[in-house]
# Entry
Amino acid sequence: MKNLLLKKIFILSLLLIFTFVSQAQKSNWCGTVNFDQEAVKNDPSIIKKRAELEKFTKQYSLKKNLSEEDVLIIPVVFHVVHDYGEENISKEKIQAAIDILNKDYRKLNTDVYQAIPEFKDIVADVRIEFRLAKIDPDGNCTDGITRTQSLKTYDADNDIKYAIPGWDNTKYLNIWTVKSINFGAAAWSHYPGISAALDGVVSIYRYVGSGHTITHEIGHYLNLMHPWGNSNDPGLESNCDIDDYVDDTPLTIGVTNSSCNKDQISCGSLDNVQNYMDYSSCDVMFTKGQKTRMRAALNSSVSGRNNLWKQSNLEATGTNDSYASPICSPIADFYVDEKSICEGSSIQIFDNSYNSSIDAWSWSFPNGEPEISNEQNPIVTYNTPGNYPISLKVYNSSGNHTISKNNIITIVDTLMGYPAPYFEDMESSEFPESTIDNTKNWKIETFGNYSWELHSTTNNNSIRVKNYSNSLETKSILISPNINLSKFKNPENFTFNIAYAKKNSSADDELKIYVSDDCGITWKIRFLKRGSQLITNDGSIVTSEFIPKDDEWKEKKCSLTSFTNSNHIMIKFVCTSRKGNCLYIDDIKIGEKFSGVNNLNSIEKIKLNIRPNPFKFDAIIDYNLTRNSKTQIIVTNIIGNVIGKFNKEQTAGKHSLNLNSIAPNINAGIYFIKLKVNNSQTTKKIIKIK
# Structure
């Protein structure tokens, strides 16, 4: 591209940083500009560093550098961030990624011959080689791969680099691989000058070992911009006015939708659509000008790029030609596909050890059958309910390593599920996990930035998912404790209250409810609503974070008929974010005919509250009546027996009543207080402790 000679170096660096950034990511798969702009906003000192680099690059490009033909070796470490899914990519796939890089940067890619004649003479052998590190920062033997189980693998952003820190960026090129990225990009990098903690490449696992995504991102890491300049908005005519500061890349508007029109002319000359830094589907080349710019970055002290390929660093990282890599000691790791099984069931545990070959395994399974094993992926049977640890020790000729994981497996008691009728209003401080009765524990699984969380308003708790802030397709899971329906006559009655509003007209959030009668091994869907089907307000769009009013709740029903007589069911709520708003759940009721609960407007305006809850000696029942009403309060125990009643005509306003005046001398346990007002009712759970 023709240099804009009238631009001053400092202005060049400002343009590098602050060119307009498009937020549309449907087809623009590189996230570099988005993440880099945010980083610069948080750390303006980057501007000065990049101005220095631009000045150095200009001086470097004017010299005749005999060193241009030296092959520069860059030590690489892959940080695989996973949740034991397919994103935990193999060593073979990572090596394939290294092989692709070395072909692309050495002009050895098999498709380079497809470069059209107009650009064949400027196709560059960049003369850069990438090698997996063989020595880690502590001097230990490594295969150049770290593996970390973390929920940060979902909807990744720059926070992942703080949660799983990279190695010294002046000695290693850090590449993180993840399950997903939080705004739909495939990968991103930062230009030189970024803080050490953020320096490196992040890529979705699918793009490792195939294609040229990482080739593109390392181009950014080595100070290349997109051919249309520093924006993520190809296709705009105004891109003809933006420079990438490379002499031989023509001005271009850029390629959209991964197309490949080799005859594209957009700014008065033929576009180099086959460039690795464009968005085409036929990228095969770097230019000689891009080679010079990248090698300038590698000769600059900005971000320590000039130390990466120094002989002393190659020796320190085990990437020099003469280094003979020993057999590394293994690092133990393992996982289970199912973390919850029924008592008397068997489960297979899978070895996930890495860093070297394994010669032997030594497992320990307290209360399991067997309790010890030397198999690689043993099968274990558990006959006693409880939460149990597992430990693994792995060996090879260079050493051994042990890992232990506490409470990794839950064995469910199929005879002692919480008996129906079951009611959960989220009002207790014991929700979601009880220290009084662990059979009542709920489980929350997070696969993004936000999952189910308690939300409090005046006299009312509920549980919600902040889809207002969640990324696209983030799943939030809430799993009930084991519930016993075997002694109850009406298991088909399962109701809950919901509140939801849309953030925009296209919001399509989804709620699914599943039921399992085999301790969570398999799940059957029983409820599915999405988008407009979930709306509980008047249908108006709520652009801010939705907080429901009393009259913005609705009751939903779900059938459990096919689970009649089951002595152990679990219920799973799965909320999927599709750019909507917050979704709330409250008052989950299972196994009782809750008559009159459809009039939720009246129920919510009653505002029943019990304090304190749990209580030791007495509790106060507070409620509010919107008009003169016939009031009835019924106290029942956990199996539905009535142990206290209150009936009275009362005037509108606030009322309070001591529980002991209705049901004196009750024993420690769980009870329900049902408030009936005219034709409406609501129920709250209370707990008396010893």
The chain has four domains: 9-317, 334-412, 415-594, 595-690. The longest helix spans residues 45-62. Residues 1-28, 594-604 have pLDDT under 50 and may be disordered. The first strand starts at residue 72 and ends at 82.
